[in-house]
Amino acid sequence: MRVSVMQMNAGHDKAQNIAQAGRLLSAAIAADRPSIVALPEMWTCLGGDRATKLREAEELPPPGANVPGGAAYEFLRGVARSERIHVHGGSLAERVGERLFNTTVLFDPEGREVARYRKIHLFDIVTPDGTGYRESASFGSGAEVVTCEADGVRVGLAICYDVRFPELFLALRRAGAEVIFLPAAFTLQTGKDHWEVLLRARAIETQCWLAAPATWGRHAEGSGAARDTYGHSLVCDPWGSIVARASDGVGWATARIDTQLTQRVRRDMPVLDHRKLA
To answer: Is the pTM of this model over 0.85?
Structure first.
């Protein structure tokens, strides 16, 4: 498996974001020929007020149903079909009536949706400079731990703030995950101090690969306030070593997932067998 994680500078105009994602995916696929590509968290609509989020959100087709979805959903499905690869859709705003969920969808090379995950842990915090974030004001929380098969490897799904809750990642490992995807829109303040160390910790604890596509740069919140996200999309191996990383700016990073390395790390240090507590 070859994984490419995309790094976007998203805003709250979905059409412009889809166009940006299309250009980025085309370039990454042509250059690196990955078997799976992954987009960041909320790449379809980052920022804006609740009315904007509702307008740009999509009602997703029932899982397994062969019916059309919204513009972003069909874009992801189309890339999977045309390029004959797996496409991890980062996360987008899923609309269920007047409720929103921060939701991942993953497509196989036939364009079939093979997994859907709703973000469990919502970002309700105050950063060191006093800036407040309250994701639960707009989004509901998911409840299911989700894994699936992609390119012969079992992958687990998580989103951004989930990375601070190791029990979710342990549950994904116990469900058979070898690779865990974590699309994110980490704030600049938290990202510069915590992004890399948290991803490496989750990789070391679970002995899984971590693939983390992220948004980078400035966008406007509904109040008009400018918010900055950290970027630095990366892929980390089960030993905690970073094997591919994007820096500042729009771009991508690609790495080969070595399942033999996963087996060797787990064999030589069988931490799952040694666990005494749940």
So the answer is: yes
